[in-house]
Amino acid sequence: MSAQIIDGKKIAESIRLEIKEATQRLRAEKGIVPGLAFILVGENPASQAYVGMKGKACEEVGFYSITERMPADTPEEALLQKVRAFNEDPRIHGLLVQLPLPAHIAEHKVIDAIDPRKDVDGFHPINVGKLVIGEKCFKPCTPAGIQELLMRSGNDPSGKHVVVVGRSNIVGKPIANILLQKQKGANAVVTIAHTGARDISVFTKRADILIAAIGKPEAITGAMLKEGVVVIDVGSNRVDDPAARKGYRFVGDVHFESACAVAAAITPSPGGVGPMTIAMLLRNTLLAAQDSVG
C-alpha cells in the first residue's frame, strides 16, 4: 500500500488564507483588527523561535500583535500583573504566555489568570471544562489542527475507532475529548493508550485512525498498525544523525517508512501537524475578535 501523504503545510496555508480574508472583512465592516499578545519570560531558544514564528504569522494575516519580553528572574506577581493588563487591553483579543516558564513561576496560576475569553491556547480550566462537555470554547491549537487535518484530507472520524497514544493535557486528553463529541468532525469511538500499557500494539493494531503523541522517536512501527489505518503523527523528536548537515534531524513518534507500507494516509513529521498549530492559534484569535463585537 502506498499511503496518501497528508500535507499539513498545504492545508495550513489554505486556512491562513481564509483567516486573512475574514480579517479583512472584519476590519472593513466593524473596524476591528484582531490583536494577539505574546508574553515571553526568559531566554529559552525554542520559545523565542516559536514566538517569532507566531508573530510573523500574525503579520501575514493582518493581525495586530505585540510581544512582551520579560527576564527569566521576573517575579511571579509581576508576570500576573502583565497578564491582567492585557486582559483589560481592548486592542488584545488573544493572550498567549509561552511555556515552559521559569521554575519559580507556577504555570497553573498564570494560566488561571488569563481571561477565558482571551485564552486562545485553550488551556484555561473553564475552556477545558467546556471542551469536555461539548460547549463552544477555544480548542487547544494542536488538537484542533488534528481535527482539521482529518476533515480536510477526507478522513472524517465519525464512527471510526480512533486510538490516541498519549495522555498529555496539551494533545492526548483534549483530542480524545474533541473526537468523541456527538458533533460534526467528531462522533468517533475513542481509546486512549499510553506507555503504561503492557503491550501498546494491542491497541494500535485496532485503530482506524491512530494519533501518536507520546514524545518517543519512531516508537510506533508499521508492524504495530493494521492495514488501511490513517496515521496522525504529532511527534517531533530530535535525534542524532552524523550524516545530516547539523548533525541531527527530527523524526516523529511513528516510523514513517514502515508505517507508509500499511497506512492508507499519514502525516509526515516535520510538515504534518506542526504547521496546523499556528494556523489554529490564528483562527482562535480571529474568533475571539469576532466574539468581541457584541
Quick take:
With 294 residues, the chain is an alpha/beta fold. 40% of the residues lie in helices and 16% in strands.
Provide the gyration radius in Å. 19 Å
The CATH class assignment of the largest domain is Alpha Beta
Q: How helix-rich are the residues, as a percent range?
A: 25-40%
Within the largest sheet, what's the order of strands?
A: 1-11-8-7-5-6
N-to-C span: 52 Å
Order of helices and strands: EHEHEHEHHHEHEHEEEEHEH
Give a description of the structure:
The protein has helices at residues 8-30, 45-61, 76-88, 107-113, 125-133, 141-152, 172-180, 201-204, 256-260, 274-291; strands spanning 4-5, 35-41, 64-70, 94-97, 161-165, 189-193, 209-212, 230-233, 237-240, 248-251, 265-266. The chain has two domains: 30-115, Leucine Dehydrogenase, chain A, domain 1 (Rossmann fold); 141-274, NAD(P)-binding Rossmann-like Domain (Rossmann fold, 3-Layer(aba) Sandwich). It has 294 residues and is of the alpha/beta class. It has ten helices and eleven strands.
Question: Can you tag this structure with a few keywords?
Answer:
single chain; 294 residues; alpha/beta; Rossmann fold; 2 domains; six-stranded parallel sheet; 40% helix; globular
